[in-house]
């Protein structure tokens, strides 16, 4: 009997050790490779020219692509449009873009903002939970649910970041939407391994503002893009809205003013907000402030919330409008902000 108890004890210990080993293994960070750039994503490494180059997941597919199978299943799909992994479109996108890939994490601060509800002053485009016609300034009735593909085309686009050329049933512009993209230094080794035509991991610094060399790409194109849902917000200075109210100009490309001048497309939170000097919480903590003091300083206290703004409170106005340059105790109005 003693031997039997020892055997059971040993077996139980072995099971526990195995379980801990599995947990430890699961916690290991995913390391992207040219053949497997994300968990469960498998692509080839030889392009149409016989060169080594990692195939792309969205658009610009190689003639020997395997990318379709990453999102779709021919006979055993879990959702509409033969969606493979999840039952809704936004869930499908988030199965990778929630940080699982290790890059293009929409829950992490970027040039497009952040989808985050865990921090103060958080506000965002609530994909998968609101109707398109609930957008402020919407003039047309579209009861379809706002999804990632309302703004992005998962099969490719002529615009940066897969931005659609037709939104909410409207072709907003024939011009290109340019973003300031730079290769992510954190993935320098991966980018070097994918070849000249392969997948590259970029960081976005946000929209390219006034570009004197591209007369065919006026800044108004960004506001046109947003106004396909926020129809009544596409205004010049002094124009009266359909609602009877007046709105700040959003189409002055010569002055670099458009929706993206003041707002993030995905959303914002207290970690991303800036003050009129262009500083964030991290900047003030680095300068010696406590985290608690910096967060209290940066918190957006407006009743309506942070409204996807880039700047906290009314400093979104003050960054451009220097109404009173006279210094006051506790004030600091010198210099221009960094956008």
Automatic annotation (TrEMBL):
Keywords: Signal. SUPFAM superfamilies: Multiheme cytochromes (SSF48695). This is Doubled CXXCH motif domain-containing protein. Residues 1-21 form the signal peptide. Gene3D superfamilies: Flavocytochrome C3, Chain A. It comes from the Bacteria. GO terms for molecular function: oxidoreductase activity. Residues 61-99, 147-167 form the Doubled CXXCH motif domain. It comes from Neobacillus notoginsengisoli.
């Amino acid at each position: 009997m003693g031997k039997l108890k020892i055997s059971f004890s040993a077996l139980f210990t072995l099971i526990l050790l195995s379980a801990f080993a599995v947990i430890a293994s699961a916690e290991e960070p995913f390391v992207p490779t040219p053949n497997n750039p994300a968990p469960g994503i498998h692509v080839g490494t030889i392009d149409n020219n016989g060169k080594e180059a990692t195939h792309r997941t969205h658009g610009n597919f190689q003639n020997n692509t395997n990318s379709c199978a990453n999102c779709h299943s021919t006979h055993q799909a879990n959702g509409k449009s033969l969606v493979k992994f999840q039952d809704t479109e936004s869930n499908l996108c988030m199965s990778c873009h929630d940080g699982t890939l290790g890059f293009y994490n929409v829950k992490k601060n970027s040039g497009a903002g952040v989808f985050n509800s865990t921090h103060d002053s958080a506000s965002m485009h609530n994909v998968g939970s609101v109707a398109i016609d609930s957008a402020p300034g919407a003039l047309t009735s579209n009861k379809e649910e706002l999804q990632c593909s309302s703004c992005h085309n998962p099969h490719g686009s002529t615009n940066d970041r897969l931005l659609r050329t037709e939104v909410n049933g409207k072709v907003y512009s024939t011009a290109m939407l340019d973003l300031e993209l730079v290769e992510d230094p954190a993935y320098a080794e991966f980018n070097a391994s994918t070849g000249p035509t392969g997948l590259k991991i970029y960081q976005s610094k946000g929209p390219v503002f006034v570009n004197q060399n591209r007369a065919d790409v006026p800044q108004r194109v960004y506001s046109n893009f947003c106004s396909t849902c926020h129809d009544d917000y596409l205004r010049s200075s002094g124009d009266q809205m359909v609602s009877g109210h007046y709105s700040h100009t959003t189409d002055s490309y010569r002055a670099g003013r458009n929706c993206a001048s003041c707002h993030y497309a995905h959303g914002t939170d207290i970690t991303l907000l800036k003050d009129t000097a262009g500083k964030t919480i991290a900047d003030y903590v680095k300068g010696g402030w406590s985290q608690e003091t910096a967060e209290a300083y940066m918190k957006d206290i407006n009743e309506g919330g942070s409204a996807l703004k880039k700047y906290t409170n009314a400093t979104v106005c003050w960054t451009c409008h220097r109404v009173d340059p006279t210094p006051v105790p506790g004030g600091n109005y010198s210099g221009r902000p960094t956008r």
